[in-house]
């Protein structure tokens, strides 16, 4: 079971704006920000639980990651994708069924401004 995920980005302000807009569609909001060893970090979450942390990595940003956020409905997946596209995301798989995973896997994939593969997925039937 995951407790939280954190990673660095090249342009902190751009990424915070991207994630604030994109994750709002899933009910995930910025909850706290502070300086962390000379850089900035923001924790996004819900229900008083920050679980997705974005930090200022500057030139030290390396490798790519994949994070999938659980969505309550297919409409939330669609809203996530639309928000990502409107705020600098790049398409990596428009909203739709991915039946090769399982019959009700409805997901959308985007690349964030640093090229990380970010997904929203709903497992509920139609």
TrEMBL record:
Domain of life according to the entry: Bacteria
Every VOC domain range: 1-123
Name the UniProt record assigns to this protein: VOC family protein
Protein species of origin: Devosia sediminis
Keywords assigned: Membrane, Transmembrane, Transmembrane helix
PROSITE patterns: VOC
Keyword Transmembrane: yes
Transmembrane regions: 16-34
């Amino acid at each position: 079971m995951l407790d939280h995920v954190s990673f660095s980005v090249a342009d902190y302000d751009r990424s915070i704006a991207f994630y604030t807009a994109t994750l709002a569609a899933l009910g995930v909001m910025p909850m706290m920000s502070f300086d962390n060893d000379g850089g900035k970090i923001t924790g996004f979450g819900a229900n008083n639980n920050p679980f997705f942390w974005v930090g200022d990595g500057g030139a030290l940003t390396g490798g790519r990651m994949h994070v999938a956020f659980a969505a309550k409905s297919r409409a939330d997946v669609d809203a996530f994708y639309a928000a990502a596209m409107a705020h600098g995301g790049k398409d990596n798989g428009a909203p739709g069924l991915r039946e090769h995973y399982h019959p009700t896997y409805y997901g959308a994939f985007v690349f964030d401004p640093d090229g990380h593969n970010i997904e929203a997925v709903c497992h509920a039937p139609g």
